[in-house]
Amino acid sequence: MRDFILQAKAISDETRIRILKLLEKGEFCVCQLMDILDMKQSTVSKHLGILKTAGLVECRKNGTWTFYKLSNNLINNYNLDFLKLLSCLKDDFLIQEDKKRLKEIAKQDIRILCKS
Amino acid sequence: MRDFILQAKAISDETRIRILKLLEKGEFCVCQLMDILDMKQSTVSKHLGILKTAGLVECRKNGTWTFYKLSNNLINNYNLDFLKLLSCLKDDFLIQEDKKRLKEIAKQDIRILCKS
DNA sequence: TTCTTTTATCACGATATAACAATATAATAA
DNA sequence: TTATTATATTGTTATATCGTGATAAAAGAA
Predict the structure, then answer these.
(1) In terms of Cα–Cα distance, which of B5, B95, B91, B61 is closest to A14?
(2) B81: CATH
(3) Beta-bridge partner residues of A61
(4) Number of separate domains in chain A
């Protein structure tokens, strides 16, 4: 039950839902997500930590960057079910705007984007 | 998204998970749940209110009693999915104990049980 | 009516969570 | 080495949530 609650809480926050819906589109580093969400680095990093602890996302390091993506293997008993549930969530206005912004920043060189 | 978060939060609490797992076994009034959960009336009633607002449970009045059960029709976009997800949750020790207690009180006359 | 029973709601203290600034850590470049 | 960049962690403040006592509301019995 502890794991289940951890994951249910993880998807109970607007910011974390926004992050997960973005990660459905690919793999992103913290500074890219900062830019799209328009939130401070510590805030984004903390939310990603919560999602990682819950087993909903995985990350890989590349130099100073950390890239996050959705977990695609069974980390605990329910993580894939929770992600599936979220994939059924219809995009509301906020998510749609995030995805528009995503398309813009996806074109940009990450080395330039993250310095700004 | 608002509804989704409401339901995700509703299943993010140990007490509410215990209630939902009990309601998988049938229909119960507040005082029966109080007895099984060993919690105060205001606490149980509040949790049931949260579950009702989230569309996860329904209730019917019979005299002074209010009987709660799991929603079995589509109240919002996700309620059945959330209940399905919860039905996959493996019973841990606490839930097992609740179900044992449930079997005991199910035999008893509700008019006597609820007066004690 | 008055009393009892059951449930819902309000108010409160304790705890948890959110966003953020400041700081620490780790990798790389100069 | 020192400086820079990206991320993680810590501490603070504001808000949200949990459990509970007190109260209110609704139904029925006396």
Answers:
(1) B5
(2) 1.10.10.10
(3) A66
(4) 1
Q: For residue A76, which residues of chain B lie inside 8 Å, CB to CB?
A: none
Instruction: Tell me which residue range forms the domain holding B56.
Output: 2-113
CA B64 / C1′ C3 distance in Å: 15
Residues with CB under 7 A from strand D: A 29-31, 34, 41-42, 45-46, 48-49, 59, 64-67, 111, 114-115; B 9, 12-16, 39-43, 46-47, 50, 61, 63-64
Q: Which nucleotide is nearest to B31 (CA to C1')?
A: C6
B1 vs A81: CB contact, 8 Å cut-off? no
| pLDDT averaged per 10 residues in sequence order, chain B, 116 residues | 97 98 97 96 98 97 96 89 96 96 88 78
Q: Provide the shortest C-alpha distance from residue B105 to chain A (in Å).
A: 24
Of the candidates A92, A56, A23, which has an alpha carbon nearest to the alpha carbon of residue B2?
A: A92
CA distance B52 to B59: 8
Q: Mean pLDDT of residues grouped by 10 in chain A (116 residues)? A: 96 98 97 96 98 97 96 89 95 96 90 80
